[in-house]
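anyone else get weird line breaks when pasting these?? whatever heres mine. first is seq + tokens for prot A
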Amino acid sequence: MAKAAKSDRQKVIDDIKKKQKGAEKRRGMMIVGVCVVIALLIVGAAAYRPVKDWWELRQFNDVDLASIGAPASVCGDIEKKNAEGESDHRTTGEQITYDDAPPAFGPHWNEGGVAPAPIDKRFYSVDDRPELEALVHNLEHGYTILWYDETIADDPDKLIEIEGIAKKLDVSDSNFRFKFIAAPWTSDDVKEGKAFPEGKHIAFTHWKGGDKTEGIWQFCSEPSGEALADFMKDYPYTDSPEPNAM
């Protein structure tokens, strides 16, 4: 009887251990499953924007620059101002205050790979935009910069138009005719007292060189490839203070 009772107790113990091992295995599989799902969600989230952009940008594949966005009539008159700051290179990191929103000329940083910003990137978001002091150096080299404010940044349809414009001009790193950058005008810029004119959410800027150096602006209510094409034709990189520099 004692031996039989001991055998029964052992069976109970073995059954409990077996159930515990089964439960632990199921928990382990559940943990692995949850980790896999989380990993897939992370990867999917990271890939979502590039894939979405690629899909939406296809609409511009067979159209020219002037056909993207609104007609040129959404833009105001050209504005000009005597420029200064040519070859006025400052130490990287020095914060420079610009009087204009956005700047079209002025003192700027000068550091290889930093200022000016590299020519191989045409579109910037709020997360990766170079500092103003770097982009002003791009202007000195003949770039046209399209600035967009937070109203545009928060409008997916308008933002994809700007990306489409940038893609049209992102076709050659050696043809300086395509010196162009699209960059956001951020809330931090506005906090410093620099806001676009009322009702305007896009600005084109260019630094004109020659005997009379000038800052050139044109403000628009929304993106216009037609207006940008005209602007870059009228104010090409060749008339900038340093047109042959990248």
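and prot B, same format (seq, then tokens)
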Amino acid sequence: MRTRALTRRHLVIMAKAPQAGRVKTRLAASIGTIEALRSYRVLLEATVRRLASDRRWTTWLAVTPDGAARRLAAWACGVGPVAVTPQGPGGLGERMQRLMDRLPPGPVIILGSDIPGLGKPDIAAAFRALGPSDAVFGPAEDGGYWLVGQRRTPRTLRLFDRVRWSSEHALADTLGNLDGCKVSQLRRIADVDDEAAYLRWRRRLGPHGAAGSYPA
């Protein structure tokens, strides 16, 4: 008798290798390269620790550049149960579409690592939304989105064609690729992408904060 393949929920955290001058570059312009790097490490580790322990989904860390995947995999072993995969070449839309196309069967949700207000209930709500909906978004205050997901049945949709990334049009452009599809939206959450958001996050973190365990 043939056994049907197990369908899992897949949560993908997009991650850059933490290197000075390569991460949080917009934030670094106001708070400095070293503090931006430190903040990125803390945010990345907190996101993985907070979300990867939930058995309702499989957590993936999608890494760029590809050559950093092995190093991040070694680090992730001490943080949470995470499968590490390279993002591959191309722009952001190409890399996210590749993940949607290639991950094992089951709904896929993709998010960044710089959203301190994000919790397990938000991820659970996103997967629930993909029951009746083809796609789900977590809208951001700047016109982009902090989460995107799709059910991938009966087919995998092409979500990211002609999207103007890092602009107030990113969400609207992506929704424009979903004409005729049922779409759900979650609550708005701010990411840590500018100095004002950074200062709010630091106040919540406290005077000492955390250093993060990612190796320098």
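btw re prot B: Residues 1-5 have pLDDT under 50 and may be disordered. The chain is about 35% helix and 15% strand.
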